[in-house]
């Protein structure tokens, strides 16, 4: 009996693209079943991340028309990472293999077969990695590649040019469920789980419809979340910076005292204000970084649920039928 595959697809305001890509996902799922690489119990799970348009209605229509489509809806928008996590936790006791992929059709769906083959070859994790960024603008390419390099410099273990297109075995998902932090950054968390992994390269296409939900602002926020959730290197950098400045300040004090006793002191407003401004600005930056870590600790201590499922839909249910609040 072949393993069961669940494809987890987070959706946020995707009413334009969902009717197009849903058929592509279904075709790929059936093709894998036809080739006897996955079992007939395999499914496609859409996770509605509190969309403000008709995304959930579209998911309901799909689920009621085809048994291979399933849907869950979060009670409110909680962000892409939490939507992916909700899908993983929903299927962790049902799936032997889980593939996460975005809804927009940019990631090459055909790469799933190569991922499944890599899984049967013995790999527990298969990362989808972009082979090039030729479809990106220069600015997008520069900022995206800088994003991964910056994360690595800051101590976050990530796979270069890998986003959230990946295959995970049931063993990995079960171990991942033991990670209890509220601040999720899956690109950095999954490498921490370990196990055998490999990569599959693919060409990333233009978005089929709709607009990107990851502008530069969100990319920067994601990078900062990744750094502060996975690494304390910024705090160590602050410590080293403070020691260097303290040493420099000590040298300036010795120089000032020497100048005083030799009678060569000159009252200087510019030098004094420059030093005060520099030290003040540096202190504010350091306090900001420390505050970010303290804020993360505050959220972790409160132990709030990472997601709440308000609705579930399948061929055997109605959109307004089964409702439950689940705190994970």
Automatic annotation (TrEMBL):
GO terms for molecular function: glycosyltransferase activity. Pfam families: Glycos_transf_2. One of its GO terms (cellular component) is plasma membrane. The keyword Secreted does not apply. InterPro entries: Glyco_trans_2-like (IPR001173), Glycosyltransferase_2 (IPR050256), Nucleotide-diphossugar_trans (IPR029044). It is found in: Membrane. It comes from the Bacteria. Keywords: Glycosyltransferase, Membrane, Transferase, Transmembrane, Transmembrane helix. Residues 7-175 form the Glycosyltransferase 2-like domain. It is a multi-pass membrane protein. The chain crosses the membrane at residues 237-257, 269-294. This is Glycosyltransferase 2-like domain-containing protein.
């Amino acid at each position: 009996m072949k393993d069961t595959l669940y494809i987890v697809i987070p959706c946020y305001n995707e009413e334009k693209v969902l009717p197009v890509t849903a058929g592509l996902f279904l075709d790929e799922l059936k093709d894998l079943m036809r080739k006897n690489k996955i079992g007939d119990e395999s499914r496609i799970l859409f996770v509605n991340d509190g969309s403000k348009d008709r995304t959930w209605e579209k998911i309901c229509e799909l689920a009621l028309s085809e048994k291979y489509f399933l849907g869950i809806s979060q009670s409110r928008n909680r962000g892409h990472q939490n939507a992916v996590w909700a899908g993983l936790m929903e299927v962790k006791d049902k799936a032997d293999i889980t593939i996460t992929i975005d809804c927009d059709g940019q990631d090459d769906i055909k790469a799933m077969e190569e991922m499944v083959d890599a899984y049967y070859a013995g790999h527990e994790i298969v990362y989808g990695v972009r082979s090039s960024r030729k479809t990106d603008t220069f600015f997008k390419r520069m900022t995206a590649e800088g994003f991964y390099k910056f994360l690595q410099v800051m101590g976050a273990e990530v796979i270069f040019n890998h986003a959230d297109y990946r295959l995970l075995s049931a063993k990995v998902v079960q171990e991942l469920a033991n990670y209890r932090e509220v601040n999720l950054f899956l690109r950095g968390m999954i490498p921490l789980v370990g196990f055998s992994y490999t990569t599959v390269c693919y060409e990333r296409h233009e978005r089929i419809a709709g607009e990107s939900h990851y502008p530069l602002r969100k990319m920067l926020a994601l990078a900062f979340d990744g750094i502060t959730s996975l690494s304390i290197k910024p705090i160590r950098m602050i410590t080293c910076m403070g020691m260097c400045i303290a040493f420099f300040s000590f040298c300036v004090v010795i120089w000032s005292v020497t100048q005083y006793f030799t009678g060569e002191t000159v009252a200087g407003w510019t030098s004094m204000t420059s030093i005060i401004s520099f030290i003040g600005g540096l202190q504010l930056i350091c306090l900001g970084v420390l505050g970010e870590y303290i804020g993360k600790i505050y959220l972790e201590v409160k132990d709030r649920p990472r997601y709440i499922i308000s609705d579930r839909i399948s061929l055997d249910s109605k959109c307004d039928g089964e409702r439950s609040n689940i705190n994970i």
